[in-house]
Amino acid sequence: MSESKGIEGADEERRRILALLLAGGAITSVSGACAAAETTDEGLNNNLLWAVAWKQTAAEYRALCYQAYNIARMRLDDALRQQKTGDRPLAIITDMDNTMLHVGSYWGYLVNENMDFFDDAVWDEWLPNNLVTAVPGSREFFNYCSDRGVDVFYVTSRDQGERTYEYALVQLKYLEVPFADEAHLFVFRESSDKTPAREKIAEKFDIVVLLGDNLNDYKRDYYVKDVDERLALMERDRADWGTKFILLPNPTDGNWVRAIFGESEPPPTDENRRKLKAAATRLAWDGR
Fold first, then answer.
1. Using 50, 70 and 90 to split pLDDT, how confident is the model at 42?
2. What pTM did the predictor assign?
3. Distance from C-alpha of 132 to C-alpha of 155, rounded to nearest angstrom
4. Strand intervals (E) in the chain
5. What distance in Å separates the CA atoms of residue 197 and residue 154, rounded to the nearest whole number?
6. Quick check: helix, strand or coil at residue 159?
7. Is there a contact between 16 and 8 (Cβ–Cβ < 8 Å)?
8. What is the pLDDT of residue 35?
9. Which pLDDT does position 283 carry in this prediction?
């Protein structure tokens, strides 16, 4: 064999090996892309998965709910011991959604539909179906209040059209909680500001505690568009937590979302997903 033929043969072999390597890389890239698409199609990268799974399955979630209502009972017992003949009647004010109504099936639906942000249209369709359950500890506490002559007022911010109030009242009756009547239910359709209800109730009652899953349920001050400002307000009021206001856990929605995105129900855009990632990495380790 001549030297030139030997070189040509070696070149041909190298080309063959290179072609095989390139083909393998292409196959790997295609299979990787398919796997990524499959993961996306199954919703395995949904932003809501950890938070919704926690609310659905964690014993810690239920324990925090019981803890909140146990503290509420302690505050009520203290107030009853101090009450004297002739004093004004006592009252409890509670938010509804995620405070005494568990709305886990709504969030589960979003996950199943590969939706990763709150969806108002789905919420409005879901809510009238009465798929709620009682938040752990809530019904027992409200019955405890009723047995001791303490009124419970339910205050919520919703808008499902003309039947909004009816839907809220039906849910209270469905859960068989005390004071499920028009005298004890406040529904705000046009605003999330619950201050008017608190002021109205305070005209006739001494408010023992307020219950909510959102600091805006306590004071309108928390309806701001800046994370650090909201944190500073929380520090200002820290003596009130567990004494005047009792907070229920809610990692899926609320006005903490507004502080990140500038609105409480941001649309599901990639820009907003980047904002969510930026919020999640505010204190991230740099790896060094």
1. confident
2. 0.85
3. 17
4. 90-95, 101-102, 133-134, 151-157, 185-188, 206-212, 245-247
5. 9
6. coil
7. no
8. 46
9. 95
Q: What is the pLDDT of residues 221-259, one digit of tens each?
A: 999 999 999 999 999 999 999 999 999 999 999 999 999
Q: How far apart are the first and last CA of the chain?
A: 59
Q: What angle do CA 130, 69, 60 make, to 5 degrees?
A: 80
Each residue's pLDDT tens digit, 132-187: 999 999 999 999 999 999 999 999 999 999 999 999 999 999 999 999 999 999 99
Q: Three-state SS for 152?
A: strand
Q: Helix 104-112 vs helix 49-57: angle between axes, to the nearest 10 degrees?
A: 140
Q: 90-119 pLDDT, tens per residue?
A: 999 999 999 999 999 999 999 999 999 999
Q: Which distant-in-sequence residues (6+ apart) come within 8 Å of 27 by Cβ? A: none
User: C-alpha distances in angstroms, 120 versus 15, 253, 266, 267, 278?
Assistant: 59, 12, 10, 10, 24
Between the alpha carbon of residue 107 and those of residues 52, 90, 234, 279, the distances in Å are 7, 35, 27, 21
pLDDT of residue 215: 97
187 three-state secondary structure = strand
Superfamily classification of domain 47-280: HAD superfamily/HAD-like (3.40.50.1000)
Neighbouring C-beta atoms of residue 256, cutoff 10 Å: 18
CA distances from 7 to 11, 152, 193, 286 (A): 6, 93, 83, 52
Side-by-side strand order, sheet with 90-95: 185-188, 151-157, 90-95, 206-212, 245-247
Q: Report the residue count for the chain.
A: 288
